């Protein structure tokens, strides 16, 4: 029997202990990330905690690196249709199904974990409604570290960005870098080192994790953690599966999600801190944006907000309510 066949199969079995019959629920949780990724590690820790707290009555199997065959952009649909009962999904990658889910990529919107907490307070009801439309609910969110720019020369002021050929990592980052005065480049990541060495590219935009893991310090000497956006993963569960649990099981699992979420956020922050330290240990100079660069970031970001509102009108009221709370 193939893995996909097993996933589609019934998830409930009976386990007999002596003369008592105990219902066991088996769920599959898909994540695109590998075993060394903090999101995957958090999902595994959560699954273990659920298994322990329910005495094995609810057993969640975490499938790493997309091994279920569910594409990274199709996790919302996979949970909705019951292909898997749970998924760890990067929200903006589900924007093809629900355009609002791309909002967190907007520059200058969410900068750091404190702002992410405020964003989720304001946008939470909208997210809840979206996921409910797709037959699922969110158990917990975990943010990714924010992106910055890796360059040969320091980037501190707005003028320092002018004309820099920086590899972007998605369409939003391309537009943002362009509005910042850079000359963004679309380039396969594996070609970046050769391009920088050849002088056809000046650097790259990405996170501390990717920068350290890819050893960008070998060919760029400076990093500015511009912190222009922050995106979350959400771990969701299919509502049919959820409602099939007992009241006690649902209460136990939700309590665990609420309690463990703070630890998962701390793991994200620690990932950023440890990778930044690794960059420094390998000779990378960390710069800080001056006021001119911050002002240009705000200007570019708000122009992109306005464009997003034209495509996703429902986002405007949510973003404006959030901006009022954060002084943006």
TrEMBL record:
Keywords: Periplasm, Signal. GO terms for cellular component: periplasmic space. It comes from the Bacteria. Residues 1-23 form the signal peptide. Pfam families: DctP (PF03480). One of its GO terms (biological process) is transmembrane transport. It is found in: Periplasm. Its main location: periplasm. NCBIfam families: TRAP_S1. This is TRAP-type C4-dicarboxylate transport system substrate-binding protein.
């Amino acid at each position: 029997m193939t893995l996909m066949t097993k996933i589609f199969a019934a998830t409930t079995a009976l386990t007999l202990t002596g003369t008592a019959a105990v219902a066991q629920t088996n769920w599959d949780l898909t994540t695109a990330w590998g075993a060394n990724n903090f999101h995957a590690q958090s999902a595994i820790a959560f699954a273990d905690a659920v298994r322990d707290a329910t005495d094995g009555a609810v057993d969640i199997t975490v499938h790493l690196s997309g091994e279920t065959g569910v594409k990274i952009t199709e996790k919302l649909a996979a949970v909705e249709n019951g292909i898997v009962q749970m998924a760890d999904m990067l929200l903006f990658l589900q924007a093809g199904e629900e355009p609002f889910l791309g909002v967190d990529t907007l520059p200058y919107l969410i900068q750091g974990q404190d702002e992410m907490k405020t964003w989720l307070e304001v946008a939470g009801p909208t997210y809840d409604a979206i996921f409910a439309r797709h037959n699922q609910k969110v158990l917990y969110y975990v943010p990714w570290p924010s992106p910055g720019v890796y360059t040969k020369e320091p980037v501190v002021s707005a003028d320092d960005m002018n004309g820099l050929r920086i590899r972007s990592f998605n369409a939003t980052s391309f537009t943002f870098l362009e509005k910042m005065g850079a000359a963004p480049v679309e380039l396969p990541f594996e070609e970046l080192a050769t391009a920088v060495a050849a002088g056809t590219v000046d650097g790259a935009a990405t996170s501390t994790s990717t920068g350290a893991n890819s050893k960008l310090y070998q060919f760029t000497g400076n990093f500015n953690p511009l912190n222009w956006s922050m995106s979350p993963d959400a771990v969701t569960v299919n509502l049919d599966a959820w409602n099939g649990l007992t009241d006690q099981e649902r209460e136990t699992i939700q309590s665990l999600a609420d309690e463990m979420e703070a630890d998962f956020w701390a793991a994200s922050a620690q990932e950023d801190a440890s990778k930044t330290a690794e960059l420094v240990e390998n000779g990378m100079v960390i710069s800080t944006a001056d006021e001119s660069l911050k002002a240009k970031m705000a200007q570019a970001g708000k122009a992109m907000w306005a464009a997003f509102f034209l495509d996703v009108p429902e986002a405007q009221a949510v973003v404006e309510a959030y901006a009022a709370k954060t002084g943006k």
